[in-house]
Every structure is written in C-alpha cells, then in structure tokens.
C-alpha cells in the first residue's frame, strides 16, 4: 500500500473513532462540564499557584503555601478532591458559593486573599467546568494550616462587615459597543486571570480602589510591587504594543529584555503561558484600551515621586 493510501486509511479510521465523541460533546442534551475546558480555565486563572507549596515540593494544589499580606500570613488551602482535608465533599453549589460569595460550605466567610472578588464574575458554566477539572485530579490528604492574621482581620464579624459594607460585587456584563475580542479580554482579565487582585491598589480596608484600576500596587501579595499596567506612557506600559504584551504573558520576557520575577512569573508559568493566541491578543487589546493612569511606583518608598503612594 502506498503512503497516501495508508494515510487516508488512518485518517478515516481516526474520523470514525473520534466522531461519536465529538457528537457527544456538541450535543445540547449533554451539558456535562468538560474536564479539558476546565483545565484551560484553570490555566487562564493563573494555575491557582497559591494552593501549591512549590518551595517545599508539596503535592499539587494540596495547600500549605504561605502568602504574606499586610493583614497577616495566609496559607493556601487544599483544593484537591480529598473528602476530608480537601474539597472532595463539595457539591456544585458549594463550589459556586465559595467562588462567587466567598462562603465555605459551613457558612464561614473567606478573607478576600482568596480572590472570589474577581472570581464572582466567572460564568456558572465555566465554574462548573473548573470544578470538574479539579475533581479529576488525584486527591491528596493534607490538613490545612491555620492562617496567622493580625486581629481583627479574618474574624467572622469583621468579614461580614467587610462583605456588606466594603465590598460591592459587580457581575460581568459584556459591552455591546466593544469588539468580541475586547469583551473576551475583559472577562479574562477581570474574572479568571484576576490581574487586578495584584495590580490594583487597595484601601486600608483591603478593598480594591476602582479609580486606580490596574494602576499598580506597592503592596501586592508577598509584599511584591505589582507595576502599573495601564497604558500610561511614563509610569505604565504605554510604550508596549499588543505583541509585547502577549509575548510577555506567554514567556515572561519584557520588551526591554528583562525576565519576569516572583508571583507574576508563577502565574505565567503555571497558567497564562498556556492561553491560546487569540486569548492573549484579547487580553492585550483590553489592557491597551484602559484609561492611562499616572502612578509612579518604585520599590524604595523614599524614591517615590509626588504622585500619591499606594
Ligand atoms: C499574583 C499576583 C499577580 C497577578 C494575578 C498578575 N500579576 Fe502581573 N505582575 C505581578 C508582579 C508582582 C509583577 C512584577 C514582576 C516583575 O516585574 O518581574 C507583575 C508584572 C506584570 C507586568 C510587567 C509590567 C512592567 O512594567 O514590567 C505586566 C505587563 C503584567 N504583570 C500584566 C499582568 C496581567 C495582564 C495579568 C492578568 C492576566 C497579571 N499581570 C496578573 C503580579 C501579578
């Protein structure tokens, strides 16, 4: 048999093998969330790097990773499907409540270091796919560590106050005046990839300052400075073009040749680098469309310019 014939035969065989699967996936009756879609969403969310204690070679997503914040030290929790120490007993509704309202199945309020403030914008369909992916992973038995917080942060009454009076959740609503790809970019940035959780400064009560959207924060998680990523020419990324941004989110390389460091490196490595070209472009389109905000941030506070410090 010549190679063309062999190839045709193999293709035909593969077609038969794959078609019932495809039909099942596309069938409107079968809306079961799909694991590979969930894996992609997980990566778009930055690979949930806070839940793996990579430094101590701990098991994937089994928690225990310390995260320093001005409110104390948090320990990422076990989000493997272990029924006792992880989230294996959670129903779909438990998962959705945790991700959108910051409430545990027992009714405890989570501190917003768990970025449910962004995740609440993720669609229900995407949340269920994300859960399906997490539940497809190996369960790991590892007890959660108690957070080490400065009082009264983390106290339940304080969290209730915070949620009722400080936090004003906004659902994701697509903007019909913008392109489809811009809306996709906004959804990725604001909901899944939660860029603002690090790049938007917080007020004293820990709420993101809406007027400083993406303008950089001196006190990101782990005390890291998260730069201004609005398109301001002087203090932001106004001199970057679309390709610079998508290349950076894929490889962690800045236009000036510098390599990314710290938490941004982690979310790129474990997550964003896996994004499809069109999603990276959408993110870049969205970032470059933001209102430029002048906010000079330098690691050493003594060097800060006149602009207000965050
Ligand atoms: C977990 C916190 C965190 C998240 C989430 C995060 N970043 Fe970052 N980002 C940082 C930190 C910290 C730096 C500084 C790293 C460095 O300069 O090496 C940074 C650097 C950057 C830079 C380089 C800016 C410059 O001037 O050098 C860009 C661009 C950027 N982030 C875009 C994004 C986008 C877009 C998202 C969402 C898709 C995002 N980041 C999500 C923490 C974060």
Which tags fit this structure?
disordered C terminus, binds heme C, 310 residues, mainly alpha, three-stranded antiparallel beta sheet, 11 helices
Structure overview:
The protein folds into 2 domains: 140 residues, no CATH class; 125 residues. It is 39% helix and 3% strand. It has 11 helices and 3 strands, in the order ααββαααβαααααα. It has a 3-stranded antiparallel beta sheet with strand order 1-2-3, with no helix packed on it. A hairpin with a 2-residue loop joins strand 1 and strand 2. Helix 2 packs across helix 5, helix 3 packs across helix 5 and helix 7 packs across helix 11. The longest helix has 24 residues. The chain is globular, with a radius of gyration of 21 Å. The N and C termini lie far apart (71 Å). The N terminus and C terminus are likely disordered. Heme C binds next to helix 8, helix 10 and helix 11.
Strand line-up across the major sheet: 1-2-3
**Multimeric status of the protein:** single chain
Helix content range:
25-40%
Overall geometric form: globular
Mean pLDDT: 86
Query: Radius of gyration over alpha carbons?
Result: 21 Å
The strand count comes to: 3
Give helix and strand order, one letter per element, not per position: HHEEHHHEHHHHHH
Class of secondary structure makeup: mainly alpha
Question: What is the strand content?
Answer: under 5%
């Amino acid at each position: 048999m010549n190679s063309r014939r062999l190839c045709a035969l193999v293709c035909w065989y593969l077609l038969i093998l794959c078609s019932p699967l495809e039909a099942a996936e596309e069938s409107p009756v079968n809306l079961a969330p799909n694991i590979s879609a969930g894996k992609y969403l997980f990566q778009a969310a930055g690979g949930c790097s806070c839940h793996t204690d990579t430094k101590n070679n701990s098991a994937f997503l089994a928690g225990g990773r310390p995260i320093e914040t001005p409110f104390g030290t948090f320990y990422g929790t076990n989000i493997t499907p272990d029924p006792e120490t992880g989230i294996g007993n959670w129903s779909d509704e438990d998962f959705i409540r945790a991700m959108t309202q910051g409430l545990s199945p027992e009714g405890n309020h989570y501190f917003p270091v768990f970025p449910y403030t962004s995740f609440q914008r993720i669609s229900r369909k995407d949340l269920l796919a994300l859960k399906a992916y997490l539940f497809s992973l190996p369960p790991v038995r590892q007890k959660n560590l108690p957070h080490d917080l400065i009082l009264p942060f983390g106290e339940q009454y304080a969290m209730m106050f915070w949620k009722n009076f400080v936090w004003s959740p906004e659902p994701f609503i697509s903007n019909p005046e913008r392109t489809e790809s811009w809306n996709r970019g906004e959804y990725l940035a604001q909901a899944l990839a939660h860029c603002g959780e690090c790049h938007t400064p917080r007020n004293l009560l820990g709420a993101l300052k809406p007027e400083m959207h993406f303008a950089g924060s001196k006190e990101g998680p782990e005390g890291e400075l998260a730069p201004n990523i609005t398109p301001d020419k002087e203090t932001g990324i106004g001199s970057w073009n679309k390709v610079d941004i998508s290349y950076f989110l894929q490889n962690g390389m800045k236009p000036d040749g510098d390599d990314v460091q710290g938490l941004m490196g982690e979310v790129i490595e474990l997550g964003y680098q896996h994004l499809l070209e069109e999603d990276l472009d959408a993110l870049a389109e969205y970032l470059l469309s933001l209102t430029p905000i002048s906010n000079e941030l330098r690691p050493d506070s003594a060097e800060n310019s006149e602009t207000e410090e965050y």
